[in-house]
Amino acid sequence: MKKLLAFSLAAIALFSSCGNRKAVLLPNVSGKAGEVIVVMTKADWEGALGNATRDILAADCPWLPIREPLYSLVNIIPGDFANLFKVHRNIVYFDVNPQVSESAVKLVKDKWATPQCLVYISAATSEDALTLLQDNSSKITSYIEQAERNRVISNTLHYEERALAQQVSEIFGGSPHFPIGYSLKKKTSDFVWIADEKQYTNQAVLIYRYPADEDPLKLDKIVSHRNAILKANVPGMFENTYMTTGTMPQPYLEYVKYNGRDFAQVRGWWEVENDYMAGPFVSQSFYSPDGTDIIVAEAFLYAPKYDKRQYLRQVESLLYSWEWNEVKKAEK
What we know:
By secondary structure, this protein is α+β, with helices and mostly antiparallel strands. It has helices at about 1-20, 20-25, 40-45, 50-55, 85, 125-135, 135-160, 160-170, 220-235, 310-320, 325-330; strands spanning about 35-40, 70-75, 90-95, 105-110, 115-125, 175, 185, 190-195, 200-210, 240-245, 250-260, 260-275, 280-285, 295-300, 325.
């Protein structure tokens, strides 16, 4: 009896300490990375609402050499949306019903599983749902994309190669996190190259710095410094070959604020000068804590035999895991 009582008290303490019993009881999500279930009637899926959904969620993934959709879509009609599908990782649910009193787009986390991303769109008519979808397209895709990144980061933290982040932090005062499989390829006083190299894929992160000059976060300044640093540090397979920035298509710059960090994000195409190797890259350029240097964390991919969407998303997500040493100390 005492053992039974002790077990019961321990169980109560466990659930009380969680603060959210629902989160404990939720199953893990199912489905493939980059996959989205769209709950919508057949008539809407074959009409204007379905066409707009595909235009937004299955648009061509940018900066890839061959066409791949941003997300892989699976249509489920509402009557078939059973428990099997409710635990999927990404769900966009269209509730089109004349009884809906207020049209809305709700971004819901961990409704039926964890870590789950649910976009709930409610409207009285299909036309109203279409307007909501189009007006909120950026918010919806950003929410799904961040959910995909967060899953990569969470898995990275669970299976982390801790020594790599420590070595980067010693030089730059902060670092991304790296999962098992990545290893150090090169390290200097202001440049680090870390990669997961397999027979037919190469996912790599470059981290480097240079003194901040006037307007250092403009595209031409970022690309110019990138080309000079990569020429000196990332050689190709043959003599007089080295990594550089492709000009077709032109690199694209956007300014991003994420997790308390402001950075200039550049997407583009890397090439090897005097050779035929190439692939997509994404870089994040930001000031050092003291403002004297620009630090660049860059992810690039080489995977000539495979679809590249998920490989690029995996290595790009590592950049979003960047932590400053001061933040780590404060958390401790």
